[in-house]
Amino acid sequence: MAEPEEHPTDLPECPSLGGGGLLPAELRAWMLLLAATGAVEQRLRAVVKEKLDVSHDEFLVLCLLAEQPEGGLRMTRIAELLGRPKTRLTYQIACLQHAGLVTRRSVCGDKRGVEVALTDKARDLLKEASAPLAETVTESLARFMGPDQCAAMRGLVPDLVEESRPE
């Protein structure tokens, strides 16, 4: 049975950058970033599964690799950037490789080093899915954040529009 979708007015207020609380500006900004990230991840999971047929964590690996102009990234660097244990990443990379989305190869001159790169299939899938994924991010941010938070996030996401929130 599907759970009822939360309405923005049912959610606790997002931390404000305006101050007035006990936290310094840096911690308020961090809390805003965490709240925004959580809102996006929650809605993005289903779209990622539908459009790319991968898990959210596998999607994050694909995104990191997509930002590499040539070649790929070493497994240790991916684990470091995502804050994931190397053993968990090894499993995710194996799943992506099995799906034909990444390749693995040894790094020249380093017996233990492994570099991961996107395949053409993954590049094509990401191109096809990028518009609905970007739309999901924008809608999620607008839906779960108040006017002050949306204004702050527009520096990072210029297309973010403020959704009218019922009083």
What's the helix and strand layout?
Layout: H1 25-52, H2 56-66, E1 73-74, H3 75-82, H4 86-98, E2 102-107, E3 110-118, H5 120-144, H6 147-153
| Number of contiguous helices | 6
How much helical structure, as a percent, in the residues?
A: 55-70%
The residue ranges in which pLDDT falls below 50 over 5 or more consecutive positions are 6-11
The major pleated sheet works out as:
3 strands, antiparallel
For the residues shown, what is the average pLDDT? 81
According to CATH, what is the topology? Answer: Arc Repressor Mutant, subunit A
Question: What distance lies between the first and last C-alpha atoms, to the nearest angstrom?
Answer: 29 Å
Question: CATH homologous superfamily?
Answer: Winged helix-like DNA-binding domain superfamily/Winged helix DNA-binding domain
CATH architecture: Orthogonal Bundle
Outline type: globular
Number of domains: 1
**Strands of the biggest beta sheet: in what spatial order?**
1-3-2
Structural class: mainly alpha
What is the β-strand count? 3
Tell me the β content.
5-15%
CATH class categorisation: Mainly Alpha
| Rg measurement, Å | 19 Å
In N-to-C order, the SSE pattern is HHEHHEEHH
Protein name: DNA-binding MarR family transcriptional regulator
Keywords: DNA-binding
Domain HTH marR-type: 26-162
Organism: Streptomyces paradoxus
